[in-house]
Amino acid sequence: MDTFERETLAPESPYLQSSATCNFTTAYFKDFLNQIVSHRDTQAEKAVKIFSWVRDNISYELGLRPDTAAGTLVRRAGSCTNKANLMVALARAAQIPAAFHIMRVKTKDYFGPVCTPRFSAFMSNESLHIYTAFNVEGRWLKADGTDDKTLCLSSSHLCRQSELVVFDGQSDAMINLDQNHIVFDDPIRYPHIDNILGKKMRLPSSIINVMNLYLTFIRLHGKAYNHVTDLEGGFFSWLSSTFPVENEDFNLAEQEILKKINFRMPKQELRSQNEKVGN
């Protein structure tokens, strides 16, 4: 269906229903929704307010957690999947039909230059990216509120993928990805992603924790850096002095993954990889 084709959805539509992880039927959830939107708002205005609130008040973090929508609301942080799940839940609670889109991306290209060599060693070649679609006044609109405003404003000068996404309730609003970085953008609108949220994280928590501390550092100090190499150096200096235990855990994990890379690579590629990770 074209983005701008109008569609009327019945109340029993799966795009308006709760699920195991997209849970919005509790009094707490509905009371919270009333703090974001007003009964006087149009459907488009409600969608924009929900999008903007989740984008900016739920800090983006790496690592898929099995949190429900309510759980993400309490934690105030989540991955693209967690944030999309909360956004859909809030929209449905406001009687706005909402769905999930699944995109497969080239992981390192998706994160862009801020995915420095030391971090890229842990990245898979491809990964899933989840984002939201709202049915606003009969039109399906795509809206990706993954990156929070603070993160965007602190890193977009280094990474075009981090440019702030603004949704106006009238047209699609997507992350600034080059089409070559997208492996597949599934046109199907999924009513829930319970099966995806049930998956386990691929990386150990020691790695994920440091990657999320890196995002915290960018929010705090990203504007002070004009080059990604300087940003990486500044982060690891900050990490070693502020979070020495986490820094040591990361170093040990980095050594282990380097051993695996070294075991598989011919000498010429091995030398290049060692230079990449700064060894």
What does this structure look like?
The chain is of the alpha+beta class and 279 residues long. Helix content is 46%, strand content 12%. The protein has 12 helices and 6 strands. It has helices at residues 27-36, 43-57, 69-75, 80-93, 107-111, 117-120, 149-155, 194-197, 205-221, 228-242, 244-264, 267-276, and strands at 59-60, 77-78, 98-106, 126-136, 139-143, 182-185. The strands form 2 sheets. A 4-stranded antiparallel beta sheet has the order 5-4-3-6. The protein has a two-stranded parallel sheet with strand order 1-2. Helix 9 crosses helix 10 (228-242), helix 9 (205-221) crosses helix 11 (244-264) and helix 10 crosses helix 11 (244-264). The longest helix is centred in the last third of the chain and has 21 residues, at 244-264. The radius of gyration is 20 Å and the shape is globular.
Which tags fit this structure?
279 residues; four-stranded antiparallel sheet; disordered C terminus
The rounded Rg comes to: 20 Å
Quick one: overall form? globular
Number of helices: 12
Mean pLDDT: 89
- Counting helices, strands and paired strands, the structural category is alpha+beta
What pattern of helices and strands is seen along the backbone?
HHEHEHEHHEEHEHHHHH
**Largest sheet at a glance?**
4 strands, antiparallel
Strand order of the largest sheet: 5-4-3-6
Strand fraction equals: 5-15%
**Amino-to-carboxy terminus distance:** 51 Å
| Oligomer designation | single chain
Low-confidence stretches: 1-5, 263-279
**Can you give the helix content as a percent range?**
40-55%
- Total count of strands: 6
